[in-house]
Design brief:
The structure is a single chain. By secondary structure, the chain is of the alpha+beta class. The chain has one domain: Roll (PH-domain like). Helix content is 22%, strand content 32%. It contains four helices and eleven strands; from the N terminus they run βββββαααββββββα. It has helices spanning 79-90, 94-107, 117-122, 179-188; strands spanning 5-7, 14-15, 42-54, 60-68, 71-77, 128-131, 137-141, 145-146, 155-156, 159-165, 168-174. The strands form three sheets. It has a six-stranded antiparallel beta sheet with strand order 2-1-3-4-5-6. The radius of gyration is 19 Å and the shape is globular. The model is unreliable at 31-38 (pLDDT under 50).
Length: 192
């Protein structure tokens, strides 16, 4: 996961450390045209991959959660996106295609490391963002293991992230392995 990515406030292109102007559109990186948080540049604190939320009794949706220094962007992962990624990886050869097909959905989040949060927001009409100033609460809850039957593997409670806003709560189930990363990312962004 790439940390401390910076992006142009005008066109969304990646900005390299030390750049005085955007290499894509020429926007000044510092000065009056770029005044704002962090000199006008939105920085990604990190990406929480493959978070799920219920969308019906037996249905769920998968999102990649992009946390910047200004907001949290929720980018939905659709079957169409996974198929497109598999198709792209399969062009590299048979074995790459098989490996790509097996990991496509789980690794899709990596593309957001090089994408401006604004671009991620516009990628799909179902994507949405919550600005930091509208978040009234944020909790990351780690599920615990329980031994139900002696000699059998433990059963784990769900781990999840809850984000409260005046318009409602956003609750996403997280992979147990993503909990530590989610805590580090939200701490870096200034939440916990």
């Amino acid at each position: 996961m790439t940390q401390d990515k910076r992006f142009c406030t005008k066109c969304g292109a990646s900005i390299l450390a030390g750049d005085k102007f955007c290499g894509s559109c020429g926007q000044p990186v510092s000065g009056p045209a770029a005044v704002g948080l962090n000199g006008g540049l939105e920085q990604i604190a990190g990406i929480i991959p493959n978070a799920e939320r219920k969308s019906g009794v037996f249905k769920s949706e998968t999102f990649n959660i992009i946390v910047s220094d200004r907001r949290i962007v929720f980018a939905i992962l659709t079957g169409e996106m996974i198929r497109a990624q598999v198709k792209e990886v399969s062009k590299k050869g048979f074995f790459s295609g098989v490996a790509g097909a097996l990991t496509a959905g789980g690794n899709y989040y990596k593309k957001y490391a090089d994408m401006a949060p604004e671009e991620a927001l516009k990628e799909n009409p179902q994507n949405f963002a919550v600005n930091f100033n509208s978040i009234t609460g944020l909790r990351i809850i780690e599920g615990h293991s329980h031994v139900v039957t002696k000699g059998k593997p433990p059963v784990y409670d769900e781990s999840y992230i809850e984000i409260d806003t005046p318009s409602g709560q956003h609750k996403f189930t997280l992979d147990r392995d993503a909990i530590k990363s989610a805590r580090e990312i939200t701490r870096k962004a200034g939440f916990i």
